[in-house]
Structure formats: C-alpha cells, structure tokens
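assembly run, all chains below
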Amino acid sequence: MKRWLIQNGLFVTLASERPTYEGWLSVEGDRIAGMGEGAAPAHEAEAAEEIVDGKGLLFLPGLINTHGHAAMSLLRGLADDLALQDWLENHMWPTEAKFAGDDVYWGTSLAAAEMILSGTTTFVDMYDHMGRVAEVVEQAGLRASLTRGVIGLCPPEVQTAKLNDAVQFARDWHGKADGRIRAMMSPHAPYTCPPDYIERIVAAAHELGLPLHTHMSESAAEVAQNVRDYGTRPVAHLDSLGFFSRPSLVAHAVHLNDEEIALLAERGVAVSHNPVSNLKLASGVARAPDLLRAGVTVSLGTDSAASNNNLDLFEEIRLAALLHKGVSGDPTAVPAAEALRMGTLYGARAIGLEGVTGELRPGLKADLTAVSIAKPHFVPRTDYVSHLVYAANGADVAHVWVDGKQLLRGRELLTLDAERIRFEAQRCFERLRG
Amino acid sequence: MKRWLIQNGLFVTLASERPTYEGWLSVEGDRIAGMGEGAAPAHEAEAAEEIVDGKGLLFLPGLINTHGHAAMSLLRGLADDLALQDWLENHMWPTEAKFAGDDVYWGTSLAAAEMILSGTTTFVDMYDHMGRVAEVVEQAGLRASLTRGVIGLCPPEVQTAKLNDAVQFARDWHGKADGRIRAMMSPHAPYTCPPDYIERIVAAAHELGLPLHTHMSESAAEVAQNVRDYGTRPVAHLDSLGFFSRPSLVAHAVHLNDEEIALLAERGVAVSHNPVSNLKLASGVARAPDLLRAGVTVSLGTDSAASNNNLDLFEEIRLAALLHKGVSGDPTAVPAAEALRMGTLYGARAIGLEGVTGELRPGLKADLTAVSIAKPHFVPRTDYVSHLVYAANGADVAHVWVDGKQLLRGRELLTLDAERIRFEAQRCFERLRG
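ok done. output:
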C-alpha cells in the first residue's frame, strides 16, 4: 500500500479547542495513517513514497453533498424563476422523460467534474438509469450513496418494474468500486407514491439492509395535499408506513411543525437541508436551527443544477450560516463551524458513513480537499474556519483525494476528461431539446 | 488613442429581445467604439492595434459595488456570528480607532485586488483617511465614488474638523484619476449624527454639488431609536433634514414601511441592497422586490469584508435573485436579468453614472469584465444570463478592463502587486491587534 505525507499544511479538525493546526498528515493506502502539529516525525518522512508540500494550502475533510440528481446538470439554465410544480411538470419532467442511459451518463459526468472541482468527495444521487451513474462514480473515483428514485403514479405492473429495477441496482452495485458505492432505496416523495407502494419499498429496504431516502415537505402545497389525501402531515404519514424504521434521510423538510421536528429527532431521521434550491423554487426556509437544537442530523445538499444552478457545496455551507441569522434575527444561529460540520461530519452521519469519512482523523478514509489560501480573500490570517465558510468558494479548491487517490491536482481533473464531458453534455442537451 | 477589438466573444447586453449575442466589440481610448453580431467589419479589424480573441469568454459590463468600507478587509474573520451593535461597538470600532493612513492604504489595496479579481470595476467607499483610498483607486485603475463618512457623536470642534476633512477630500479628489474618482458627502448614519450636523453636511453637499450617501434603517433597533429620539422613522427624519434634496444613495434600508418606500421613490433616492451583510449581522431581509416595484433604483453592495466576508459581487447578485423568492414565496421575484441589472446598470444609476458605465453600449466607458465559460458549470449553453447569476462566481473572471485599460489578464493583476499587498495587509493586521 502506498504511503505518502503532507508537510507544512494547515489542517481543519473543527475540534473546539483547536479548530485548525499547522503540521502534517500521512496516508497509507486508502486511509489517514497519522496526523500531528509541526514537522512530521522522522519515521513518517522515511516511510513516505511521496511528500506533498502543503504550504499555502488548507486541508479539510472532503465535502459531502447529501441530496441531488446529478444527471439534471444537463438541464441547467433551461427554466428559471418558476414555481416548483410548474417547473417540474412543464419543464423538467417532459425533458427528463426523454433521458436515455447516455444522457444520464454524460449529465452525471458533468456533475462529477463540477463536484470534484469544488471539493466534494461524497454525494447522494437519486435518479434513473442508476447503473450508468454508478459507472461514472467508479471512473471518477468519487464516493456516493446512489438510489433509484421511483415515482408510483403509474399502473401496478410499472410500479413493480420500477421497484425491481431499484432492487436490482442495489444488488448489482452496493459495496462496489472498492466499497465507495453504497445503495439506498427511494420512493420519490409521499405525493408521488401511493402508501402501499411506499410500504413495499420499505419492505425491500429491510430485506436488503439498506437506508431510505426521499423528498419530504418541500413545499407548503405538498403538505396540504398530504393532509387532504391521507389525513396526516408527511412526517406522521411516512412514520405510519414504517419509513423511519430504517435509517432514513429526508430531503428538504422545509415545512415542519414542532411535533414533526420532535418525531424526526426521536426516530433518528437525518435531514438534507438544501437552502439554495429551496430559495430558488420559492419553497421557503427550512427550520435548520430548530432541527439542530432538537438533535436532528442536518446535512447539506445542492439538489440538482436545474434548481441551484451549480453544485458548489461551499455555497450551501455559506448560505446555511447566513440565511438563518437573517431570517431569525439571531446572529448566533448556525455559527461558521456548525455550518462546516453540516457540509462534512453531519453529511457522513446522514448517510451512515460517520467514522468512515467527513473528518480528518487517523483511521478514516483519506478523503481530502485542499484549498489554496494564497489569495486576497483569505487575508488576514484570523480564523480559517470563518474564511472557509464566509469567504471561500469552490474555485479555491486546488487538490482533491478520495480513498487516498488524487482526483484533482492543481485544478486539473485526473480521472475525468473535462473537455470531452462538456462536449458530450452539450450534444445530449441538444438532442433532448431538438 | 489606442484602438483595439474583441472578436468571437459572447456579449451580455441584457436587452430583452437579445440578452446576449455572439460578435465583436471595439474600444477607442477609454470608450466602447462599436459593437455588432458576427464577424467584425473589415474597417474595425484594420483600425485595431490589438485583437483579443473572445472565444470561450462572456463579456459583461464591469460590476458596480455600491456600498462598502474597503479598508475593513483588514478585519475579515476577526469577529463573526455577533449582533450588529456588539460587533460594531466591541470589535470593529475599537480596532478601527487604531487605523492609521497606512492601514487604510493596505486594507484598501487588499480590497481592490479582491474586487478586480472578482470582476468589479466601480465601487463606493465610505471611510476615513480617504486620500489614501483615492491613491489606491488611482494606482489600481478602478473607478470609485469615495466619501469620508463622519460620525457626529463628538464635541462640536471635532464635528467641524471631520466635516472640513470631508470637504477637503472632495475638493482634492473629485474628478481626479482621469475622472474615475468622484466624491460624495456622508453622515455615517442618522443614529450617529445629530440632526444639525446632518444639516451642515447636506449644506456642504449643495455647495460642492455632490451626492449624499449614508447608512439607513439597517436594524430594527436603529429605527426604534430614531422614533424614540426624534419622533419619526429614519426616512421622514432624513427628509425633514433636507437629505433627499441632493441625489442620494442609502445603504441597507432593511426596515421600511410602505409610506417610506413611496417617499424614497418620490424623492428619487437609490437604495444599496446588501443582502449578505444583512443576513450575517441578522439585520433582516430588505424589501427589494417592493422597492423595485415602486420604481426605486436598487443596486447591490457587499458592505465590508468584516460582515460578508468577501467582496465577490456575484454572490450579492445571486443572493438578490434567490433570497426574495424564498422569503416571499414568489418564484418570479427578482428574475435573473433583474439581479444582473442591480449589479451593473442600476449600480451606475445609483451613483449618477448611468450613460457612463454599467452597460455595454457604444459611447460608454470601456469598463468590461470577461468571464471564462469553458467550465462544467457553464454547460449546457442554455441561458448565459441565468448562468452568470445562478452558477458563476468571481473566480470565473478572467480579464477586467476599466476606461479601456486592462487591470486583470488571465487572473493576473496588472496594476497591483498581489503578493506585497497580502504581506503588508497581514503586517498591518498584526500591528493593529498587537
């Protein structure tokens, strides 16, 4: 196993007494082997096959994007400034209905390139043609929790075919790509899946031992519809269908009352907060500070590039830190370090990868993002956690490693052909719209 | 006068029928000479001393940042996650009290470097030691409206000395640097200046023929204090002091009622909306869509890097487009093109420079920002105005020109020494905190 060493770097640990330190970090194979302040011990330097000069670089855990639909990057800028249902029903769904496997492959490749270039190392993806998504993940070298999202507004035999497809994908790919790929099971949303169909998906998740992921309470209209159709709000509805009996991650959760927050906390449900997408689609502002206070794991997602319109998780981190202050009037809401944890540690926790990734600690996977700090907006050297959250953006990322393998070097993609991806993605888009 | 030509570029005009076009733009001296679709006419190519290949570049009017305190970049990350008054009184003001001219010079240089690197060509600056700020503007090649902000909570002779300083600065620098520097007059805020002092500043502005700039209604507490102290809310208060008898730009204007919005519209007052700073300090969300609907000119400002914490105006543009949708529930609030106008044309209008800068039109100053679009987050080629607003950030800026003179070439600063500035800014910070 290759052993290598970073020297003279700044490292973000987010430990309360010493959130950053200057020193070294060593990697053996796919894991962080050692870390320390100051110069590396002699035995570390001797054992290293390669030494990376960390001067001018700030190393943080690779970012974790816990909600998205990567292939929809093909639809970036196609339709903006519209309401959720209009946007979905009249613009997204008709175009997406034409998506073939190749469109998913190139759209996901486009997203993978953008994510690596902005420091994301792990992402959650809910879409169709998931085998093609998994291919991209394997080639790109990223880590991902992948799930075939099924919409159940269709005849029973189509429902069954979709569920079988989701199960087959999970059987084919869970644990593949050196363990970097994990599977989840996903009804698209309570408003797009009849209750009995959700129960069948939950049963399949139990059988496969997989977590569940869904959209929930994104818009006020959707909550009202749930009450109208089923007599309960979405949290109680999903709870009654056994959804939360599996480890669960719900995306959005914008419209929650106090009882729902308490139940999510009790059931150990994680929430992917997607502040940019929720603002852009005018869905509202999720009660992230209340969820955090209740002990709910709140992670961050970009949602797709069609409602964002980029996959730069630094923007979600910053907006998570800014938005709740302004809306609540409490300037201490979601402090910088907490926002950064939402994009790293809490992301890992939300998808069952705590202790695997999301932190810089010996024994964890070597998923690292290095930010170049030799730039005016990182001056003066006051508080690098603050600078990462309030001043940085994805373009500050210089290098990225996943499982100890370098994916980005000096902003050059090492595992993907950026030029070909841009070309093929444009061609797919033109075919879809032609 | 040098004549040069950009060919094969994409140009943003924001005209409703054709917001972007592919073609050419020529510059003569400090002004845009011609523009057109397709290939440049033979006489344009023949007259050009230099031809810039615009392939892969999107040219837009240089961005205009209408509220800030550039030198406070020295305090970036010093104190975050605090309320406005605590932040000002216990952290900013005590450190700023130690600022000498050199601190202002290097802090402003740091800000100038960051602004050029993120595509801003014109900025408004309210601070002290303004002669040193003007020096930086002259050297950097930027365009700026500069104003000595005076706080009147001091003995009469100090008030007079400050006002004299502001007047002297305006006399020394208004129209200098080939006309790129303009002066304004500024009471810091209604809550930091007694009414009679504001009246004296307004009188001086009339005498000098200069516009006025101030902070207004940033926090709810400040509005309540105004009512307590003077029996009126800040808009009526300033109006009664004759403030709006001069061309006026007010920063923040977060807490306004309908009557105040109507009066600002009637008086032709421009508002600098600073969404990031207002969120970070938990001041609230300004009623930007209501102001726009009432016909008020709404431009964008970063405020200082101490409450932002960067000077990337692309973030303000994006947040202006996102925030008001999510908060109002109206997904059509502040569409992309309107947000981009707030950062360009409306910025020029807010400081009396409409017809001078803020648009790409023959006869206007050649203040250009070129964004590199050969990146995943600009794919596919759907709507470049959408991409600029929802997907881009300041690091996408490749080149910048002001008055036809290039300030940034391939992200290299041509008029400023970035490395020295980082070094000196760090040294100033350490001395201030030592």
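Chain B has two domains: 3-62+359-413, 63-350.

The longest strand of chain B covers residues 3-15.

not gonna interpret more than that til we talk
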